[in-house]
């Protein structure tokens, strides 16, 4: 299994560090579970577009770096991003809120598997604390008390439903008790995504207009992807880093010095 990325680089870059947490507060961790392992499928796909010789005549270049540079200079710079659809990544994401995962799954060209709130009991659910709450002692105390209370109320509701329907199995009880679980509740999700879609989603989710949590998640994805496949994925960044900002300019392009087109 690949090394987990834990950089939270964006959050740190804005001066936010998670305050002392209680045992139920968690932070986002992205792990690379698997990737295609080589640029060869993308390289072969690109070569066959321009080759007379057929697959037997297409030989891999001497290294992954050489294939990456060839792809960048001969294909991607010309806007032929479809070639990146032949490279896949599978990420395991934990420590994100349901609010964040709901935004993620709106990107339909990816495959997802998410922890169930029917099969997994949520009485002691873990949760994500927004920076604005963590930095404000009054808000933090209120928030933590509310999370504790919701956990207790969830268990209480499970008990009431079980008494009313002793035949019901746990899934049946949980599927209705979960209605009082907040958006803050932690979830875990596996995402399989191709390289083109990853590049396109990054344009949106690394933008300052994106919500802080999904942006922090994509910062981790960016760090992992660039370390795993340099050159080709050096360019992950928001739209403004590609020179096509529609949001009026926020200065974030400077954070992505490599993302200036392929
Ligand atoms: C900053 C920000 C704020 C947002 N705010 C809101 C909000 O307030 N409310 C809300 O509901 N959503 C909101 N969204 C979500 C947004 O509307 C999209 O659903 C989300 O960004 C996924 O879009 P996508 O193009 O990446 O993915 P997809 O919608 O999965 O599309 C992927 C690609 O396939 C193409 N495609 C897919 N389906 C179709 C189709 N049926 N017809 C034509 N082309 C298609 C698209 O052109 C796109 O290139 C927000 C997103 C961002 C980044």
Question: Overview of this structure, please?
Answer:
- This protein is of the alpha+beta class and 262 residues long.
- It has a single domain (1-36, 87-262), classed as Gyrase A, domain 2 (2-Layer Sandwich), CATH 3.30.1360.170.
- The protein contains 9 helices and 5 strands.
- The chain has helices at residues 9-13, 40-49, 64-74, 98-104, 131-134, 137-164, 170-177, 195-205, 212-228; strands at residues 4-5, 29-35, 88-97, 111-114, 186-194.
- It has a 5-stranded antiparallel beta sheet with strand order 1-2-3-5-4.
- The radius of gyration is 22 Å and the shape is elongated.
- Residues 106-109, 201, 204, 209-210 line the site of flavin-adenine dinucleotide (FAD).
Topology:
Blueprint (H helix, E strand, L loop, with lengths): L3 E2 L3 H5 L15 E7 L4 H10 L14 H11 L13 E10 H7 L6 E4 L16 H4 L2 H28 L5 H8 L8 E9 H11 L6 H17 L34
Antiparallel strand pairs: 1-2, 2-3, 3-5, 4-5
Helix pairs in contact: 2-3, 6-7
The chain binds flavin-adenine dinucleotide.
């Amino acid at each position: 299994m690949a090394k987990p990325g834990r950089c939270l680089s964006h959050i740190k870059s804005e001066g936010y560090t998670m305050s002392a947490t209680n045992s139920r507060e968690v932070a986002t961790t992205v792990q690379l579970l698997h990737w295609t392992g080589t640029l060869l499928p993308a390289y072969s796909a690109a070569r066959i577009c321009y080759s007379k010789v057929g697959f037997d005549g297409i030989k891999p270049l001497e290294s992954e770096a050489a294939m990456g540079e060839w792809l960048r200079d001969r294909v991607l710079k010309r806007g032929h991003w479809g070639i990146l659809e032949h490279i896949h990544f599978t990420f395991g994401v934990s420590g994100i809120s349901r609010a964040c995962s709901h935004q993620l799954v709106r990107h339909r060209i990816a495959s997802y598997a998410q922890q169930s709130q029917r099969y997994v009991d949520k009485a002691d659910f873990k949760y994500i604390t927004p920076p604005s709450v963590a930095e404000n002692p009054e808000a933090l105390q209120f928030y933590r008390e509310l999370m504790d209370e919701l956990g207790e109320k969830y268990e209480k509701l499970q008990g009431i439903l079980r008494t009313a329907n002793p035949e019901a199995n746990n899934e049946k009880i949980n599927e209705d008790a979960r209605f009082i679980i907040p958006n803050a509740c932690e979830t875990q999700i596996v995402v399989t995504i191709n390289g083109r879609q990853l590049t396109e989603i990054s344009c949106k989710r690394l933008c300052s207009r994106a919500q802080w949590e999904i942006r922090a998640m994509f910062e981790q994805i960016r760090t992992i992807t660039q370390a795993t496949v340099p050159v080709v994925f050096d360019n992950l960044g928001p739209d403004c880093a590609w020179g096509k900002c529609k949001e009026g300019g926020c200065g974030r392009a400077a954070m992505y010095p490599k993302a200036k087109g392929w």
